[in-house]
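Problem: given the chain below (353 residues), write out its structure.
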Amino acid sequence: MKIKNIVAVTMIAAMALTGTTAFGADGLKTAVLNDAQISFNGGTPQTIQCYMIDGYNYIRARDVTNNLNMYVTQVQDGNAGIVVQPNMAAYSVKPTEKLTKQSAAVHVQKGLLVYDAIPFEAECFLLDNRFYFKLSDFQKASDISRDVSLVWVATEAADQGIQEPYPNIYYGMEVSWDAENRVVHVDRVNTDLKKVFDDIRGNQSQENEEMQKPEEPKQENQNPQNPESQETVKEDSVEAVFRLVNQERKANGRRELVLDPTLCEAAQVRASELDTLFSHTRPNGESCFAILDEYGLRYSSAGENIAKGQRDAEEVMDSWMNSEGHRNNILSSDFTKIGIGHTGDNWVQLFMK
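Solution.
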């Protein structure tokens, strides 16, 4: 049994043991038919029917997974919710049936959004045998599942008998809101677990080699004023990422971004938060964009890229540029400013206009 299946069984068992509120009713609500403009994988925004409850849109699960070509089915054993298998293609990508009910009384409840075998509890409702969830909960479920994958990759890397991780790629989901154009961007983003595995294994080997190296004797008569006797100062990581971002934008015909000091401060806070929770959701449960409000930053559109484990600016930019959702943020014409944060092996880019 793979580790994620073990974790999934454990988490579901824990929910069952403490399940007095796991699937408790949140009450009857009136769901009103609404339209949302959603762009999938950087494509042209399309109108997706949904239902609004208390100011939040609930999207039919299949409308999300079909557009990202991910397999989805309902949770079995009488529990409420869905199972998304992002590494499997959708069994049908036909357009879902048109919604005709202008309003409906629905039973909002806590259900499971199981993403790649890891269960995440979220508000949902069932209408005409279809489950509806908030888009933000799809990303939260994806982020938690990816975190489990990264932990397991680190465990596999420590086992010298394992040659490569299983699986080699993690297929995730990223959701962002374009306030100016009132479009939700939903992107399929891939994490190269093989690269993470190789980086960890390589770092371990390097540490072992350094531990075995004899200490070099100190040079007594070094002239500190002689630049040839000193190492070249490395470019600051923030400046390096900023330079590479504008290099990519220029190469793709985009206007260069401005490095905003206040936005950098916000990004630095977000970088430190990633040690607690590697997610676009902050440790206190707020959206990542709440940091912009804390710093008094006014914006019409905003985006965030995060990464963990890369050793330098070139490596993290390479990772972002090879991920469609992250690349879209870096090259987006919607943004004019950028803030960059870096601490340890955590990296953050905040974009806004």
